[in-house]
Design a protein that fits this description.
This protein is mainly alpha-helical. It contains five helices and two strands; from the N terminus they run H-H-H-E-E-H-H. The longest helix is centred in the last third of the chain and has 36 residues, at 71-106.
């Protein structure tokens, strides 16, 4: 992995912290033309078994090490995201049950 970083000019923690997931794991570009083949762009980890989640974790660890964010910032963000997801799920469940409740009231 360290060799892959060096070969791709990622030589400092700041270089890694400034990376994005697609840069590390690669991406597929889909063409607008109907018959065009998608183009696969290689990432830094080409040939190394590293998934998107692991690459994201590596980048975030570098951002913490570089002082760009703190672990507390990440925990706060995760808690906010979990609360938002729970609220969204509750709203979706309420929206699905509302027609059934209304139909029961009419009967």
């Amino acid at each position: 992995m360290l060799v892959a970083f060096g070969e791709n000019d990622i030589k400092t923690v700041e270089d890694l912290a400034g990376s994005v997931t697609d840069e590390l794991v690669g991406w597929t570009e889909r063409k607008r033309e109907k018959d065009a083949e998608p183009v696969r762009h290689k990432g830094v980890f080409e040939g190394i078994e590293v998934g998107r989640k692991e690459a994201e974790d590596i980048i975030m660890a570098a951002r913490i090490a570089a002082g760009w964010v703190t672990a507390e910032d990440l925990e706060k963000l995760r808690a906010e995201q979990e609360a938002a997801a729970a609220a969204q799920a509750a709203a979706a469940a309420a929206a699905q049950s509302a027609p059934a409740v209304a139909a029961g009231a009419k009967a």
